[in-house]
Amino acid sequence: MGESRSSRTSSSLREWSRELRRELPPILPIEVRRSRMKPKDHGDCDVLRRADGTPYKFRVRINSRLDAEAALHVLAHEWAHALSWSSDSTRIAEHSPEWGLAMAHVWNVLGGE
To answer: In angstroms, how far is the first alpha carbon of the chain from the final one?
Structure first.
C-alpha cells in the first residue's frame, strides 16, 4: 500500500523546508509544522520570543487540511515573511517590496512549481 495523502504532504513539506533552510536560511531558526486551523486560515508566520522579549525562532504553521500543492504555496509565502522580517525585524510591512523580493527568491529555490 502507498502512503496516505497527509503523510505524502508532510514528507514533501519536510523536503521543501530542508531545501529552503539550506538555500535561504532566515536569521533565526525556523520551525515548520502542520496545524489544525480554521478552514479559511491557510497558514501564518510568527516570531517567537523569550520572556525578556528576545526573538529566538520563527514558527510557520500550515493548515493540515491543505493538499500538497496548496501547502507548498503557503510554505513559500510564509517563508518569504521570515526572510523579509530577517532584514529589519517585523517592522517590514507584511507584503512589502522586501517580502516580494524574498518570495521571488523562495520560488527560485523551489523551482517555481
So the answer is: 27
Q: What are the distances in angstroms from CA 8 to CA 29, 57, 67, 79, 107?
A: 24, 26, 9, 20, 21
Which of the residue ranges 5-14, 23-32, 87-96 has the most confident prediction, judged by mean pLDDT?
Answer: 23-32
All domains of the chain in start order, with CATH: 5-109 (3.30.2010)
C-alpha cell at 98: 522586501
* Core vs surface per residue 56-94: b (16+ CB within 10 A) or e: eebbbbbbebbeeeebbbbbbbbbbbbbbbbeeeeebee
